[in-house]
């Protein structure tokens, strides 16, 4: 998880909320829409970070299981070698 990317997303969300509020107060639909778009962008950034986190977690699980399988195969090979000797 990139804390820096999460912080950027939070800042973008706040920026969007402020811009939308200003648009609401001034009756400016373009500013409202721009603020909403920034909030959506922030959500996309957060979702992207969530996906990266899940991918990293999955890669770590696969890596650990691969190590376990490799150790099991080595143990079986040792056992087979000892049985032949």
TrEMBL record:
What domain of life does the native source organism fall in? Answer: Bacteria
Matching entries from InterPro entries are given as:
CsbD, YjbJ_sf
Q: Which Pfam families does the entry mention?
A: CsbD (PF05532)
The segments labelled Disordered in the record are 20-55
Which regions are flagged for Basic and acidic residues bias?
40-55
Q: Which family does it belong to?
A: Belongs to the UPF0337 (CsbD) family.
Please identify the protein, giving its name as recorded.
CsbD family protein
Organism per entry: Pseudanabaena galeata UHCC 0370
């Amino acid at each position: 998880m990139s804390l820096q990317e999460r912080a950027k997303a939070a800042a973008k969300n706040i920026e969007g909320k402020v811009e939308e509020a200003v648009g609401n107060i001034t009756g400016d639909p373009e500013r409202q829409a721009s603020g909403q778009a920034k909030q959506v962008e922030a959500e996309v950034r957060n979702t992207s970070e969530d996906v990266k986190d899940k991918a990293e977690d999955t890669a770590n699980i696969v890596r650990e299981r691969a190590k376990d399988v490799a150790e099991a195969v080595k143990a079986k090979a040792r056992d087979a070698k000892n049985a032949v000797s």
